[in-house]
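Notes from the pairing session

We agreed to fold both candidates in a single pass and log them together. This is the raw record for the first candidate, unedited. Please don't reformat it; downstream parsing expects exactly this layout.

Candidate A
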Amino acid sequence: MTYISTYRVLRKSIISVTIPSVIFLIVSVGTSIFLISDENYVKIILTLLSVFCFVVYYQHLQLNWLIWAVKHVDNIPQLAKAGEIYGLTRYKGFPKIWTIIPFREKKIEIEEIVSDRKSRNLFVIKYDTPDVSEVHFYRSLIKCAISLLFGLSILAICIFSPFENKYALIIKLIGSVIGFYFVFWSLEKILEREPIFSIGKNGVMLENKYFEWNEIENIDVEETIEGIGKGRHIRRYLNLVYKEKEAEVQTIKIDIGIVNSTIEKIDEVIKSYKADKMHSSQLAVWRNGGSRPAEKAVRK
């Protein structure tokens, strides 16, 4: 069996679920509004029917994707939690999922697959530890360059545009300060090529501090939704939970949206290095006793 990391499985949902559903919604609602009838009440009824059919179609695709996902994902608890961000799963009560139409056979198949993996202790697949002693993750030069161009553009506008009154001068001064900040910050990050974090066989380097694996309670990546209304957006973080000797458990969280890698790659590297050091904390929520050697993952 070939297992795939959680975030690669989630990305597949965009092609398998999201895009076909959006196309179906646009075509069905557009047809109802513009082509079928000139009567307003008929358009309303047909539009509502189209939305209902869209929900049914979406949930049909969602369940098909979930059947595939629980077979191939390398970490079922992580899938259940991360899938909530996309509205594909519910961590509480997983693998149960609510649908308008029963879809009984699909739901039973999902529950049976999860139950089978649970009985064989394959909820979390252990990766082979890589031969490379350490992997470094740096700040993305592309994103720094974009920030630099943004700052230079603001400066150019403020310096070369004419000012007609004192208010325009104030705006130009404020804009120049903002532009200088972006230029200075970008150049500093481009010239400073120290890794943001490093992961290796002996531990993790994060925020200029080294953590050995025996100090680390857990390390993972997550996607969260932040903001409200139109300002809602997905942010990606690396979370490290650690405990130093008799001290209390502490958490470090860093934004990995600025890293020169994808969340899928970072997730796979973390799983490879932490190997069997910390799986017990994730399995505790899901497993009801008993253990067998977990299957080694074949990464795709």
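Candidate B (folded immediately after A)
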Amino acid sequence: MSRYDRPSSPGKIRPNQIITSYGPGAIFQTENDSVIIMGLHTWYKKQLKPIHHPVLEGTTGKKGFFMPEQFDREEVIPCKSFPLWGVCSDKFCRRLQKHEDVPDSDSEGFHCIEKKCNHAPLIHSRFITMCDRGHVSEFPWARWAHQKEDEFRNSESGHCGNPKLFFKSTGNDPGISGYFVMCDNCKSRAFVSNALSTSPHSGLLSLEGENYQLQCEGTRPWLDRDTEDIESCIKQPYGVQTRATSVFFPVISSAIFVKKWVSEAQRIIRQHTDTLADNLESGLTPSILAETMIFFKQLTESEPEKWSHKNITKEIERWSYARTKKYQKQTEREIKDDEFGDLESTSEYDDEEFAISEIDIPDLHKHITKLKKVSRLTEVKVLRKFTRGQAPDPFSKDKKNQNYCELVPKAKTEEEKKWWNWLPGVENRGEGIFFILDEEKLRKFDKNPDVLKRFSPIKTSFEQWTLEREWEIEEDFKPRYVLLHTLAHLLIRELSTSSGYNSASIRERIYHSDRTNGILLFTASASSDGSLGGLVRQGNEKEFSSLLKKAIKSSRRCSRDPLCMEDDPATKLEAGTQPITRINGSACYACALLPETSCENSNRLLDRQFVSNETFGFFRDLQ
């Protein structure tokens, strides 16, 4: 990172963190400061690695993605101090004050203005105000200390003309409720705990003394150009800690490179995406480009039988169709279905970006029809937008009027619109195991009356919960999804003890529709840590058979049994409990739940009884 408009770095961020935790608009805590990551329009684009994936370019409508890399200069991602309030670190001082935009030296940070503490270092204030539309601003410390209704208020005038604030502790409570902010001039004070209420700022006084209803300032400091990008907003702001997870919820899309996207022709197309796209927009046809572009001529000359003019033309047409038409209106599940088709049909393939081989498993054919080792896998993840306050709708595809926060300001010119037509992304390399359950057996499972009786209240509860959050469901979940999802979790827990990866490093990718099913368990990272080989070794016949049987055996017991196993969604639905408490069946952190980094659905729609129940479990006869 680098200071906005200043060539100095307050800290470092890993590429994957840009997508998951610290993208534009997020607040990052450095050793000596708190900074907000600036919008994409300020990034040093020349120091970013271009990434292309036709599927993601089609779904996002962007021309490409860029990934931060380590260069001689560290100043790749601009940031600026936010919030600007800080507390003196000296325990006898504790002056609450605003500091400058940038420190004299990043290694030294900011310092107190008081002499009595020898200008001790400042600790950044951990409070800001935020509204549901994503606007953030400085916490109104002076107004908070001078509240209208406060039993500790001593000021007769009703206001303070020269507030001198200190951040103090009662000494009785180590938690946030034991801290208060006090004005040394008028002795007014207010406890900090109330600041985290959803509507804490009503009834405040301005510094002039009149009644004041705090309104959202509409500020989006990460989009700063000449001044802060300000929107009119009627939402009520509320206090939040800068380290709260609700400050930044990323909206992420991902895709893997399957066989049709990793050929020599497709690799050349990705390397020259901008050139080819511009020429197609100008009216040239794929056939003309295949014949005239020198990089295609070199490919044809090296392998004339494989890469004829006709074959290269087909590759350009496929790539162009994917970016501009095929994936624009598809849902996430439809995109996965297309990806599943390639994984299912490819028995053997060996490429630097994607390598897969099929393994025979005769003793498991009753339950599993195909098992494949994916010894090399390349995943691309991109950050589309983000939300604050409430997690984004995973089913929306941006169709609803969500409170999404943009990564760039609204373009004022065609040049800006063209220049900002990209998203931050990361390219991860790794390995995985892919397998498919017996489809005929799975269809019978979907129609089993006992399964449907167990599944119906789970689905109803999930739909009620999503409606409460004003989400738009685009996927019609069936019993097979709960089975596949739970099985993936059980296998990840077993793999964490045998593959050399911890459970947080292994992720799932569930493929499900009326006639397809599949599970891809994989690990991927921007470094070599994602391809150490431990996961693929568990994909051999003997190892996978043992792994699956251990997972099924573990699903039959839990340290919280009988409470966990007897957890009945139908009973809880009849009792009228909150929907969030009944979107799972028999599943808890002792048996089936995983770290958030591993699960694609935030530990929802899980029930280990679908796996091994003695009456209707899919694997009930597997010993």
